[in-house]
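Dear Dr. H.,

I hope your travels went smoothly. While you were away I took the liberty of generating a structure for the chain from your last submission, since the lab meeting agenda had it listed for discussion. I wanted you to have the full record in hand beforehand rather than looking at slides cold. The sequence, exactly as received, is reproduced here:
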Amino acid sequence: MSWAKRFNPLAPRPRRGSSHADQIKAWVAEFLPTDAAAVVAVSELACREPGCPDMETVIGVFRLKRPTQMLKIAKPLVAVERADIEQAVAAAAGLEHLTKPMG
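The corresponding predicted structure, in token form, is as follows:
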């Protein structure tokens, strides 16, 4: 096999955290009603707001004939856990008191 076939700098590369992004999408589907036409996009963005961590995870839920729903989690994508998704969805719905421990 030639060198050119073994190394292609323009070949697509696996994205950092892409399998975790798929897991996040599955968790979103657990907590939000979606249908086959819905699109869930997961991105890791640099946060420039005061008091914000360096990286945050932003999740967009796009459904036909419904407003786009955006969820922000103040963690890098690879650090997001199922409970973070549950809390973000509850907060977006105004139900965050249901996910916080009583005490």
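Two observations you may find useful: Strands lie at 39-46, 55-62, 69-73. The helical segments are 3-6, 18-31, 82-92.

With kind regards,
E. W.
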